Amino acid sequence: MKIGVIGSGNIGGNLGKHWAKAGHEVLFSSRHPNELNDLVRDAGGQSKAVSLDEAFEAKADVYLLATPYMAIDRLSELYAGEYGNKVIIDATNPYPERDGEMAKEVKESNRNASEYTAMKFNTAKTAKAFNTIKAEHLKDRAWRDQDKLAIPYAAQDQDSKDITQKLIEDIGFDAVYVGDLTKTSIMDPDQKLYGKSVNRKELESLM
């Protein structure tokens, strides 16, 4: 698959490296793509650094959102013509202390964080994953044959569900389906599944 990584920090960078190792084509993106040369070199495989414009114009099969939550509004507006009918995996979290009033309003509203993302990227097929795991565990505990960490995920439709499950399992984690996007409140910051690095049985016991 061709995967556009939107936000190449700890979460996006580590996931992109894993997916490149798994044989996927990975487009690491940034407003300053020349700063991603070391990341691309570490990732190897079919990976390259591109601008945000180039990532969305590349018509990737999947886009990983791993930016600060405050960027969702602008990204969804700027690239509305590019992500239609694509799968978007939302790995963001709203932190009012970092993301400001927009995140505060989402947290206090009737919809959860992933429903807000899906509303903004309304022509895409949205899934939620990789927002609960600590960056160091994402980096160091992939590719296990035994004692795998479980990654909770949710999805808007069957296509986004199947693709997200595959991308979790491709890099040596167990995929645990939480439900549709209305069920993702337990994945949000300070909720039951947030920050938990546990196996499938332990994760399912928390749901």
Structure description:
The chain has a single domain, classed as NAD(P)-binding Rossmann-like Domain (Rossmann fold, 3-Layer(aba) Sandwich), CATH 3.40.50. By secondary structure, the protein is of the alpha/beta class. The chain has ten helices and eight strands. An eight-stranded mixed beta sheet has the order 3-2-1-4-5-6-7-8, with helices on both faces. The protein is 37% helix and 20% strand. Strand 4 (62-65), helix 4 and strand 5 (87-90) form a beta-alpha-beta unit. The chain starts with a strand and ends with a helix.
Give descriptors for this structure.
8 strands; 10 helices; alpha/beta; single chain; 207 residues; Rossmann fold
In short:
The chain is 37% helix and 20% strand. The protein has helices at residues 10-21, 37-43, 52-57, 72-78, 96-99, 101-108, 113-120, 135-140, 158-169, 200-206; strands spanning 2-6, 25-30, 47-51, 62-65, 87-90, 125-129, 150-155, 174-179.
Structural class: alpha/beta
Tell how many strands the DSSP assignment holds: 8
What is the 3D shape? Answer: globular
CATH fold call? Rossmann fold
Order of helices and strands: EHEHEHEHEHHHEHEHEH
Gyration radius (Cα, Å) is: 16 Å
| CATH superfamily membership | NAD(P)-binding Rossmann-like Domain
Counting H and I runs of at least 4 residues, what is the number of helices? 10
Sheet having the most strands: 8 strands, mixed
CATH domain class name: Alpha Beta
